Amino acid sequence: MKVCVFGAGYVGLVTAACLADMGNSVVCLDVDPARVAGLQQGHMPIHEPGLKELVQRNAVAGRLHFTVDAAMAVAHGTIVFIAVGTPSSEDGSADLGHVLAAAATIGQHMADYKVIVNKSTVPVGTAEKVHAGVASELRQRAAVLPFAVVSNPEFLKEGVAIDDFMRPDRVIIGANDEHATLMMRGLYAPFLRNRDRLLLMDLRSAELTKYVANAMLAARISFMNEMAALSEQVGADIEQVRVGIGSDPRIGTHFLYAGCGWGGSCLPKDVQALQRMGQDAGVDLPMLAALQTINDRQRQLLCQRVVQQFGESLSGHTIALWGLAFKPGTDDLREAPSLVIIDELLRRGARVQAFDPVAMPGLARHWPDRPGLHLAHHPLEAAAGASALLVVTEWREFRSPDFAALRAVMKTPLLLDGRNLYNPAMMKEMGFDYVGIGRAERSATLSHTPMTLQALAA
Ligand SMILES: NC(=O)c1ccc[n+]([C@@H]2O[C@H](COP(=O)([O-])OP(=O)(O)OC[C@H]3O[C@@H](n4cnc5c(N)ncnc54)[C@H](O)[C@@H]3O)[C@@H](O)[C@H]2O)c1
Asked: What residues pair up with 390 in beta bridges, in sequence order?
């Protein structure tokens, strides 16, 4: 099939490359000329395992092209995906500016039947808006052309995006047009050969499903973080509790890890947008507000512990950070807990030495020449002379480091494990003053004062 994809970001690029890999002819359009020029030369704008090889293979085979030429791209695709960003607006709602601009572009250039697919995460009712946007452009040039708008929210996870796209848990198609549905079935059939996981539903339900899925994931983590706070106070270990509850099939094992907060390009903005949808619809959604409040508290927890140890001013202290990306496997720093933590440490006068296997160039762009912030070439270099080490992202290479060497380079052996990677008893035995999240076995030197939701709101 002939496909056009608007947006060469995490979702658009993966979608374009995976569809091309199944033999489709794909043109991927982006408004960022530098991004397109880079892709034309085989340079990836993002870190996603396996993506470069996939893009190069399909580009060489002539099935995948990158362009800024909207007229050419729209003319090429019978199926046109919109996979552009939907960031938060000031009021928390999803900013549909890029999506509606893409819709207008399609309306300006289309000359035959199109199936327009909303893959961006968009609020309920956006398919109607896209339909209206395309129709308005057609009217302006007195063109009468058939088209359908379908919703096809994306559930890929950064870091394993290609595998997720190639072997999806489910493909959701929201549509009210039989022909468009049939075309979408055909497009996804190669990805669903061993079992049909295509779920057909109405447009609005498809749009809402994506937000509810992300809110549920955020809720699971925030709930575990809340229980972690309790766990610490009553002398339990949230890791043991996690295993205990996860073995119940009604609960399951995924997304139950207590930690130093959730972030990323999706969960924070989607929870906010869902809240906004509730407000607009006149529906009170108190759970959503609570899980955000818990997350704000959680993102401050590691800094709070540093302050408990060293006092309000951290001047004269070097604090090391392992991990910047919001999760392992990606260079995405959007809403990463590390940003909140670094900001707070620097505000208190600390020198921060950070290491991340892939996200450091992104941080250098985010905060060029930020005084007090130093990016290290190696985890041990980051820890050198540090009064405390904060483990913020659970990259594999942090799971089993050379602890003796680590202990030796640190000024004081305070290890604040924001992802519960290590065994508290083992860490103690190796001479670390270890504090995990919600774990019973913890350092005697830190007195933990739980931060109440009221205190946080004050
Ligand atoms: N990143 C994820 O893990 C993920 C997962 C599922 C869903 N989503 C959703 O998918 C959408 C895209 O997310 P992303 O992370 O890929 O965003 P991104 O910021 O990585 O990429 C968006 C791209 O769209 C381009 N763009 C903007 N306006 C355009 C236009 N009019 N025409 C062509 N290109 C345009 C930008 O230049 C950019 O390259 C969002 O709605 C997001 O919520 C993201």
From this structure: 321, 416
